[in-house]
Specification:
Layout lengths: L2 H14 L4 H38 L2 H19 L6 E2 L2 E2 H19 L1 H11 L1 H6 L5 H29 L6 H14 L1 H13 L2 H19 L9 H7 L3 H6 L13 H26 L3
Antiparallel strand pairs: 1-2
Helix pairs in contact: 2-7, 3-4, 3-7, 4-7, 4-10, 5-9, 5-10, 9-13
């Protein structure tokens, strides 16, 4: 067939079978539908993963014992014998209640590092990264579970404190709880940092040592320093302000401006370190 004939045939074919407007829109609509389904599927995956994490966390008896049972046992053992003692104008049961709540919640939020380290060792985090579940959803689920454990520990200590005569108004309970939850933010970040920086074998000493030192310096088991120099040093540690949340019962502000600066500074620094550690860790696989 000559070139003019082929051209005429092609032109006739295009004229005989023109694409309708619906046919031209079909690929565009299909692409838009697919794009809309991806966030929906990712959202369902995020919720499913969060439920899985919550169930797995609360089935871990070891973390329940260390973050819940030990603080309760220590509180009843010590506070019941000193219920009429006052420290810095605060009744001992109230002071010790916040001290044990800070310790138990510290263990709860930092312990997420142990779970992350274990998942890194078996390659689970690498498998997660090839799914639609993003890093934010993965880390967010760990933080939410850590805070749920911390909330359980705080609630249990509140009930224990009430049984030994701690009486606060509803506003004071809420304000104290809010300060405790805000003060835990840098420690939640610290748990993420440790989970991506250490091995499973080192999680026990690292997490146990970190929580013990922070709680000790913060005064969870009682004031460690009484001199001006010692107090100035521990006031630079956010765990100190966790315990000081109990001062809300005195009718004034439990936290000074320094407290908010310390908590914010620790959070920012640890977040920067955590981002670098995460990128270094994920670059290996």
């Amino acid at each position: 067939m000559s070139r003019p004939a082929r051209t005429a045939t092609a032109a006739h074919s295009k004229t005989a079978h023109p694409k309708t407007a619906n046919e031209r829109k079909a690929p565009v609509m299909a692409t838009a539908t697919t794009a809309a389904l991806i966030p929906a599927r990712a959202g369902r995956l995020h919720r499913s993963y969060l439920r899985y994490e919550v169930l797995r966390t609360f089935r871990n008896r070891r973390f329940l014992v260390f973050s819940l049972a030990f603080p309760l046992v220590l509180f009843f053992t010590i506070a019941s014998e000193n219920r009429h003692v006052h420290l810095d104008g605060i009744s001992f049961p109230l002071y010790y209640m916040t001290g044990m709540a800070s310790w138990g919640s510290l263990v709860a939020v930092i312990s997420s590092g142990g779970r992350i380290a274990g998942e890194r060792q078996i390659g689970w985090t690498r498998q997660i990264r090839i799914t639609p579940l993003g890093p934010g959803s993965y880390i967010g689920a760990k933080v939410i579970c850590a805070y749920l454990m911390a909330a359980l520990s705080i609630a249990a200590l509140y009930l224990a404190g009430s049984s030994l005569g701690v009486h606060l108004t509803a506003t004071q309970w809420l304000e104290m709880t809010g300060l405790l939850l805000v003060g835990l933010v840098p420690f939640a970040v610290l748990g993420i940092v440790l989970g991506h920086a250490i091995t499973v074998d080192a999680t026990g000493p690292a997490i146990g040592g970190a929580t013990t030192v922070l709680a000790l310096l913060g005064g969870s088991w009682g004031p460690l320093f009484h001199s001006a120099i010692g107090l100035d040093l521990v006031k630079c540690i956010p765990s100190y302000w966790l315990v000081q949340a109990g001062r809300i019962a005195l009718g004034g502000s439990a936290w000074t401006a320094q407290a908010w600066v310390v908590v914010a500074a620790w959070t920012i620094v640890l977040a920067v370190i955590g981002a670098r550690v995460y990128l270094r860790d994920t670059a290996r696989v």
